[in-house]
Amino acid sequence: MAFSFPDEVLEHVFSFIQSDKDRNAVSMVCKSWYEIERWCRRKVFVGNCYAVSPRMVIRRFPEFRSIELKGKPHFADFNLVPDGWGGYVFPWIEEMAGAYPWLEEIRLKRMVVTDESLELIAKSFKNFKVLVLSSCEGFSTDGLAAIAASCKNLKELDLRDCEVDDLSAHWLSHFPETYTSLVSLNISCLGSDEVSFSALERLVGRCTNLKTLRLNRAVPLDKISNILRHAPQLVEFGTGTYTADVRPDVYSDLAGAFSSCKELKSLSGFWDVVPDYLPAIYPVCSKLTSLNLSYATIQSPDLIKLVSHCPNLQRLLVLDYIEDSGLEVLASSCKDLQELRVFPSDPFGAEPNVSLTEQGLVAVSLGCPKLQSVLYFCRRMSNEALVTIARNRPNFTRFRLCIIEPKTADYLTLEPLDVGFGAIVQYCKDLKRLSLSGLLTDRVFEYIGTYAKKLEMLSVAFAGDSDLGLHHVLSGCESLRKLEIRDCPFGDKALLANAAKLETMRSLWMSSCAVSFAACKLLGQKMPRLNVEVIDERGPPDSRPENCPVDKLYIYRSIAGPRCDMPPFVWTMDEDSGLRL
Amino acid sequence: MQGGVGGSESGSMSTVSREDNMVVSSEDSSCPDESELELGLGLSLGGFKMHQVSRGGHYARILTAKDFPSVISASSSPSSSSSSSSSSSSSSSSLSRANVTAGTKRTADSVAAANSSSQVVGWPPIRAYRMNSMVNQAKNQATEGFNSTMENHKSETSTVEKGTTGISSYQNSGNAKLRKSLFVKVNVDGIPIGRKVDMNAHESYEKLAKTLEDMFLKTTPNVNPAGSRDLELGMMNKLTRSSKLLDGSSDFVLTYEDKEGDWMLVGDVPWKMFLSSVKRLRIMRTSEATGLAPRLHERNCQRQRSKHI
Prior knowledge:
The structure holds two protein chains of two kinds. Chain A has a domain at about 505-580. Helices cover about 35% and strands about 15% of the residues of chain A. Chain A contains 21 helices and 23 strands. In chain A, α12 packs parallel to α13 (about 325-335) and α15 packs parallel to α16. The radius of gyration of chain A is 25 Å and the shape is globular. Helix content of chain B is about 40%, strand content about 10%. Chain B contains twelve helices and five strands. In chain B, strands 2-1-5-3-4 form a five-stranded mixed β-sheet. Chain B is globular. The interface between A and B is large, with 110 and 93 residues. Chain B: Belongs to the Aux/IAA family. Chain B: It holds the Pfam family AUX_IAA. Chain B: Aux/IAA proteins are short-lived transcriptional factors that function as repressors of early auxin response genes at low auxin concentrations. Chain B: InterPro entries: AUX/IAA_dom, AUX_IAA, PB1-like.
């Protein structure tokens, strides 16, 4: 009974429940639990910034300290979402600045963050501690200077993969000399001349709690030794450029500096690597759990040597220079490997430049019993290999395969790869994320709809034959939250027939498919809780026949209604879409 | 039953089915009737009409870049029979669909332009951030002359060749199907949020100027998203009044920053040379663009001035 426990007790119990899903479940038990829960929720997660308005969030959760927001759809990473589409954070900062002086953490992904927003954050939140900007853009070093100057309690400043306008190298000097609370700094995305080395060294020197430091490419190799000596307590470190003329004194400095870091678990950076300097990190390799060599243009023999020194590796990002032979060594050396990402070194080349094939992936799935997450770029694949992989490694939770040439068939049988991916979804019962590639018919979607019951995110490109494919996915995948599709022959029928399903998902992206403008309008009219956005840079969709397919379509559920910050090339279909545009 | 007629089929076979498809799809591209939609909304899928569709074969099959092996150009080649059947209205919508599915960013005017049909934006799915880093690495390797990264490799000549191939494929897409995009930022004075434009999707200054004019010369400015600055609405209105950016007849002038960091007027060097040196674009007020003469011997003057811009 709701009366059996006083509120404070329930609140205390709820404080142990951190995950959003669980919190949401708690809030649905009964009215009083809803009330208690909303007052004590400290971390809010909004997976789509347009699904809800800032005011609604603030009204429901009056005392949160931390917010995470996501903006643009995932395909924005590949330039499929035109600039200016949206995802502006300023309205959120503005509302929160008014309501919450005690906000501590802001985490943003794929949002447009202006200097004005950063300045407002710096001014409004006195106890601000954590700023994580992931794949964001729209700000410059001026905004960073404002944060540095005003946020006296800042612990974390992480700018992973952002696009920053470089205006001044001196923003780092805006951290006052009295400021010592930095724990994590990631500036790996900054272009050249955006960091002053002396300011950096002084900052690192006085922040004795610094655990994570990811430098940018402009930091030369000979500066790293000094920085590391100032911060031997580092757990995660990203180098700058890893190249220099080979000199014994520089080398021994570097090796000594690395040896002094007894806590290092994660390394990254390694732009422009000179192999002669790699052994400098051998002293720390045995403790490494995470290694990002995805910018390191070193060849297989050097990669093999390096990887053989890291028996405790759990996460490896690497270029396809590692080749099948390197992956075989990885499979035998790194039995704790959980995540592997292999990126292409020459994605636009007509011919393969390295010997990396499906065999490498087979080897790793055979040899690494804990492997659960894979992102693999290659040029050929076979159903046989995929079935082997699925059978060997049923514990995959994330499987993303990109065969570089669209619609590439099984290279052995010339058949579509339906059966291979079918095996993946059949054997890997906990699969949450899947990206397809290669030659695929509607059959693969039938497999996915039948077996992939825990699948939450599906990415599809250049696949399928008909609406039946889309229908299989929408009607069969019970846990589906995000679906993104490009260049597939999916049209109106499956979409309209599964309209209700779309309200159970976060979002659907379809570009270069066959969904007509008429269908978009109909969907918008019938489903008031969906925002149906037509994105078309050719001009207004009503200037073409109604049965003409739209260029891009982004559908997401929302309780905030259509947004008001759309650029000229985005139209929302709503109840009146028949009447106005 | 074998799946779709993919790109692996031989030319004549797929040509026939493509034409069938275009006819089929134009017949069937009407609005689905209400009863089907009610079916979906009621979440009852028994006896669903979808199954009939699949037996029809390639209903609503989209034409992708692979279906048009030759360039869709003004001078249509005989081999691409699909593009030549542009007489019927349904086919022309299919044609524009094909252009759409090619996926490049285009303005309305350039749909029929002689862009390569097999240009696919955003594939393979590599984040722009990573692509830029890799391009910079390729460039660095070129300028540093394959330094000690290559030294340890046994067969040095073959490595050098590999490296060259890799670099040239970044600069001039080796694979006709997957063209590298070259996105550069465009900023307009007074508007804080810039846009990005794919330089490789244009072949000339005129096309680029047209795209930019279309991007920024909208007659219906929207509510400013990033803040409430009347200046910006005024900006938009101003832009609608000005005309061409290239011929000096507008209030605005198109400039670019080159690899050396100098700001120059756009339009003086050959297009290809421009492509290889442009880092970003800026549309600035004509009044502020004094001294930006694009003569090479005036570079020093520009370096001084660019500090004040």
